[in-house]
């Protein structure tokens, strides 16, 4: 059965409603302009998968507590800050189909808003003595930054191996979902080994999530981003890495030339996409994604059966079966 987000949310529906109210309060400012912008951000929230991971893992690990709300808010505040800053760096005018903060209020204000959200997250933890949560999330933000920088460095040389690719996505995507699950477990009062187990579970989910995202770039379903955008940005993802590793020397040279010099040309981008499809790159990436998915489920099934566990499994399935 296809996973449905509303059904997945059922065991934590009350917590999610309560979280929305608390999150708005955490973001409030006495500066009218700032309040106006943060309201705009909150209204354009996405699927809220990060807080769902926090509350469901807390439920599986021992139960949702007051600190679970603060942990979920900390992740949302720090992650939203990185997204606002990302849009400035990328000169992006849209976020989830809406105008980005920098498009509406210019770069200077966007950077300051990102700084404000970052400071709110830090203060929320410090004021409540949530130092372990702050350590978990700060580590994830550090890894995300390192992953992005490693990807940029490798895009210049176009020399990413499969091993380096896994390191990049582990840092830039999986570390965030891993921190959601570790925070959920930590706020339920779980022991260190159980928190680590949940972090490992979240990391595997995050790896599967990012590979699914990379598959969308080849026209696999719809995600709201144009096909071939990774190729245009010279991002070496798993389908392409596999295809190049199994290509003849001549084909490899030709494809790398197209990515390096013709990445803005639609015909050349389509040629790269066709090459990856013909080389079995999509099938290979799909198999790797499914293996991470199975590994995540194996960890989850070590926990006692409950509605929380069922929903968490549904959320994991959703990450790899989503169409956007």
Automatic annotation (TrEMBL):
Cofactor(s) needed by this chain: Mg(2+)
Family note: Belongs to the FPP/GGPP synthase family.
Presence of the UniProt keyword Transcription regulation in the record: no
Protein name: Polyprenyl synthetase family protein
Record-linked InterPro entries: Polyprenyl_synt (IPR000092), Polyprenyl_synt_CS (IPR033749)
Keywords annotated in UniProt: Magnesium, Metal-binding, Transferase
Entry-linked Pfam families: polyprenyl_synt
A molecular function GO annotation: prenyltransferase activity
Record bears the keyword Magnesium: yes
Lineage summary: Bacteria, Pseudomonadati, Bacteroidota, Cytophagia, Cytophagales
PANTHER family reported in the protein's UniProt record: ALL TRANS-POLYPRENYL-DIPHOSPHATE SYNTHASE PDSS1 (PTHR12001:SF69), GERANYLGERANYL PYROPHOSPHATE SYNTHASE (PTHR12001)
UniProt-listed CDD domains: Trans_IPPS_HT
